């Protein structure tokens, strides 16, 4: 191949990067301590069932999620961190096939979960269990310049991966 053709192929490869970058811009990968993320449309994977199509995280949580102060530097922001996983209750009649549910949880400045909402999912039937799981979890609040603030954390829950955790257990001593 000539150098010119090789050069054109390399340049063409560079134009493929924006497609990959779009895939990277999912709501589950955003830092919601950054106020700029608040009004961006929620982004799910292609083919997902969207509960808030065309809405932003600011629309979803409204006045429950007050504006945050601007950080002095990007490094002065820390995201919500899950400290302890809550219990998950497997929905009756839901078969354990592989599926994903993306849930946003609003965590107050005190670390307590305020509200959880399902954003995207690959199948129906798991919403209540997914919201309950995040509402029963324990969190460290987000911080901006060292001060705790209310913020949103987005979790991707794999139904297949929690199947074993949700199975019934035998009582001790039997």
Report on the architecture of this protein.
The chain has helices at residues 3-15, 17-24, 57-61, 127-135, 159-166; strands at residues 49-50, 77-78, 81-84, 100-107, 113-121, 138-140, 142-144, 147-149, 151-158. It has 174 residues and is α+β, with helices and mostly antiparallel strands. It has one domain (26-166): TonB (TolA/TonB C-terminal domain). The protein is globular and about 50 Å long. The N and C termini lie far apart (74 Å).
User: Gap between N and C termini, in Å?
Assistant: 74 Å
Unreliable spans: 1-23, 163-174
The computed structural class is: alpha+beta
Count the E strands.
9
Please state the average pLDDT score: 80
Structural domains: how many: 1
Helix content: 10-25%
C-alpha geometry: globular
Strand content: 15-25%
Strand order of the largest sheet: 1-5-4-9
- Helix and strand string, N-terminal first? HHEHEEEEHEEEEH
Largest sheet, strands/sense/barrel: 4 strands, antiparallel
CATH fold topology? TolA/TonB C-terminal domain
The CATH class assignment is Alpha Beta
> Going by CATH, what is the homologous superfamily?
TonB
Supply Rg: 20 Å
Q: How many distinct helices?
A: 5
